Amino acid sequence: MKKFTVACVAFAAVSAFAGTAAAEGLELGARLGYGIPMGDAAKDSKLSDGVASQIPLWIDAGYRIDESLFAGVYFSYGLVQLNKDVKDACDAASVDCSASDIRFGVQGQYHLSPGESLDPWLGLGIGYEMAKTKSGDNTATTSGFEFLNLQGGADFAVSEGVGIGPFLSFSLGQYSKAKVETPAGSVDGDIEDKGMHEWLVIGVRGSFQL
Questions:
Q1: Does residue 38 contact residue 200 with C-beta atoms inside 8 Å?
Q2: pLDDT by residue (tens digit) across 73-131?
Q3: What's the pLDDT tens digit per position in 182-203?
């Protein structure tokens, strides 16, 4: 009987924890991932011709409308690794080259098992992207809409209101504007021969409910 009573108390404690782990309210998230470039930066110009990968530092912020539905915004700053051919050309010219990628927008997530120890989720977003490349004193920025950002993952509950787990995202975007800045001045305009590009990102995500 004593063991049965202890088991009941433990079950009640777990149930209470599960019930509060996915409460309504503000929620923050942080992600670290590895991004693989796909598609064309412009017509007949592959994104991977200039970019090898990126490491995005990704922040989520929003509101858990109910225990299953999250709505909010996202911001990602990517540390971009240049393609080997580009790096070799920069080294040959004795020029310092670097690149970064900023993505931000709105998103929604649907949690399949809120309050459980393992909570799979699906997400959908839309936003804007700005990619910047520096070559010595010259800077080139291309930007455009991120039409679709599909996400999926799973949160493992580590404590009350705190989860961590893997995630995967696939985004579809198009660069439509370009700006080049040099010591002599700058020029900007629309990209005529546009292409569609994608980012496939895999990584780990942590979330915290306030």
A1: yes
A2: 999 999 999 999 999 999 999 999 999 999 999 999 999 999 899 999 999 999 999 99
A3: 999 999 999 999 999 999 999 9
What the block records as the tokens of 134 is: 């520096």
* Structure tokens, 10: 């433990």
Rounded Cα gap, residues 116 and 15, in angstroms: 9
| In contact, 188 and 37? CB cutoff 8 Å | no
Structure-block tokens of residue 22: 């996915």
Domains of the chain: 2-209 (2.40.160.20)
Picking from 156, 153, 162, the residue whose alpha carbon sits closest to that of residue 121 is 153
CB contact at 8 A, 124 and 147:
no
Token look-up 């455009």 returns 144
